[in-house]
Amino acid sequence: MHEFDKLLQQLEGATEESDRVSVADIRHRLGDNAFGPALLTLGIIALSPIGDIPGAPTVMSGFIVLIAAQLAAGRENFWLPQFLLRRSLKAGSLRRAVRLVRPVGRFLGKIIWQRVAFLTRGAFARAIGGACALLALMLPPLEVVPFGATVPSSAITAFALALVARDGLLASLALLLSGAGVYLVATI
């Protein structure tokens, strides 16, 4: 999956310019209309050790809802308010997250590729955006449950990977994972 490796290189490149990386820097690296890469970046951060920091899942939730809702609404480019664009994280933390995910990306490149691509475009992409926004709303209440945010974060990441790779089969599997996430929240 060449697109995922390229995304990781772009994120790692953002960490080389300063000791902190702002959301504006990350958005600039991804491009304004890169819903898939933006959601994938947020999903990776939510799944990384950064996501275990108290308050981080709630912050990630806000970003994910904002971007995913715009995808669901059918916007061509995503918008972020200035106060969010100024937020930043340590470059070292992002660099470690990228390095942690890179071997996973190599493995995923062997099993994820463009297939059943129509399930990642048009109305289906908007439905994926809506699903990601709903899953992100589960993150704040699950923050108090040890590893509780892992299932919704995994589903968001899988949906985002599907958008990046244009893999409709993966989008379908992410839908099943989302169902598991909803079930988990309903039973807690």
Write structural notes for this entry.
- By secondary structure, the chain is mainly alpha-helical.
- The protein has one domain.
- It is built from 9 helices and 2 strands.
- It has a two-stranded antiparallel sheet.
- It is globular, with a radius of gyration of 15 Å.
Layout: helices, strands, pairs:
Layout: H1 2-14, E1 20-22, H2 23-30, H3 35-47, H4 56-72, H5 82-85, E2 88-90, H6 91-111, H7 122-142, H8 150-165, H9 168-187
Antiparallel strand pairs: 1-2
Provide tags for this entry.
188 residues; mainly alpha; two-stranded antiparallel ribbon; 9 helices
- Tally of DSSP helical segments: 9
Overall pLDDT score: 86
Shape: globular
The tally of structural domains comes to 1
Compute the number of strand runs: 2
Supply Rg: 15 Å
Oligomeric nature of the chains: single chain
Decide which structural class fits the backbone.
mainly alpha
- Beta-strand percentage? under 5%
Please give the order of strands in the largest beta sheet. Answer: 1-2
Our measurement of the CA-to-CA distance between the termini, rounded to an integer number of angstroms, reads 36 Å
DSSP helix fraction: over 70%
* Largest sheet, strands/sense/barrel: 2 strands, antiparallel
Uncertain residue ranges: none
The run of helices and strands is: HEHHHHEHHHH
